[in-house]
Amino acid sequence: MAVIDKIEIPTDIEKWRPIMVIVNPKSGSGAGKQLLRNFRAHLHPAQVVDVLKSNIAASLRWIDEHPEVDVRILIAGGDGTICSALDQIDTLSRRIPVAVLPLGTGNDLSRWLKWGKKCGGDIDVIKLMEDIQEAEVTLVDRWTIDAESQKKLGVRLQSNKTLSMTNYVSVGVDACVTLGMQNTRESIPRAMSSRLLNKFLFFTFGTKDVFERVCKGLNERIDLYLDDVHINLPDIEGLIFLNIPYWGAGVKPWATYNDSHRQECDDETIEVFAVTSSFHIAQMQIGLASPLCIGQAKHAKLVFKGNHSFPMQSDGEAWVNSAGTVLISHKCKTAMLRKADKQSTGCGMFF
């Protein structure tokens, strides 16, 4: 990891915005590794962070030590990489605008911020960094997920879990599919070396659930509270708490309700909708169905009843949650960069 001891701001450049790049070389079927090489060919070594070899927090420490520098950050990776990097960026003493480069499977955040639905390693990095220079800053809410397991005979059934969320968090059928894919990745790492294979696995586990329906009757096994008000749920198999317009690799579930219950990404309000099955999700992905609108809230609570275990996921990370309580509360606002619609007319220096 390169160490920055001193920074000299150029006096002959009107708009100098250095760019820090955080890359996961494992992401994107090898695209991450190629991007890492391309960025290193154009930027100072201290500006390029390999998440597998460098500590993100330590690599960004100079930003707090030099508040006079107008820096921007690019994160290249999947949802997990983006989430963990944002957690470190949120600890800085000032808001640093962040762009994202889509190297995962869903890439819903990058779709909304107009950086595209997927990216290869052969992207024109000079043009990309020019676009980052001209991108518009927009604030995005981030949320804290506190999953607390219940105790039996004084012993907690499962360790408590706290994590951050930017895109969405869910319980039920879509998390079950993600969990199946995640377990496959962990048992056979090569199975996740291809985006096409990722989509095939998503289809496989989704089709499997059509027949097994392991989340059937979810509404009878959970209690939902929105802003401390108990909500009566219809017959569902999945419940999703949505922070951004996109979900499920490009679906815009709240578009149907935007006229009556407008969605904003910086209003400290989360949108809640439900799905009735994995087949319902498939219909939504091709535009043949709409989700079930449950409501909006400033904070939410899920109470898992009985002795059941529940599949959950947050920004692509899936786990099995035992009976207990899950609290969803606002964490902070993060400055993100949305790609400008206008064509590039030249920009300042980025190194």
TrEMBL record:
Keywords: ATP-binding, Kinase, Nucleotide-binding, Transferase. Its EC number is 2.7.1.107. The keyword Nucleotide-binding applies. Gene3D superfamilies: 2.60.200.40, Probable inorganic polyphosphate/atp-NAD kinase, domain 1 (3.40.50.10330). It catalyses: a 1,2-diacyl-sn-glycerol + ATP = a 1,2-diacyl-sn-glycero-3-phosphate + ADP + H(+). It comes from the Eukaryota. Pfam families: DAGK_acc, DAGK_cat. One of its GO terms (cellular component) is membrane. Residues 14-149 form the DAGKc domain. One of its GO terms (biological process) is phospholipase C-activating G protein-coupled receptor signaling pathway. GO terms for molecular function: ATP binding; ATP-dependent diacylglycerol kinase activity. Belongs to the eukaryotic diacylglycerol kinase family. PANTHER family: DIACYLGLYCEROL KINASE, DIACYLGLYCEROL KINASE EPSILON. This is Diacylglycerol kinase.
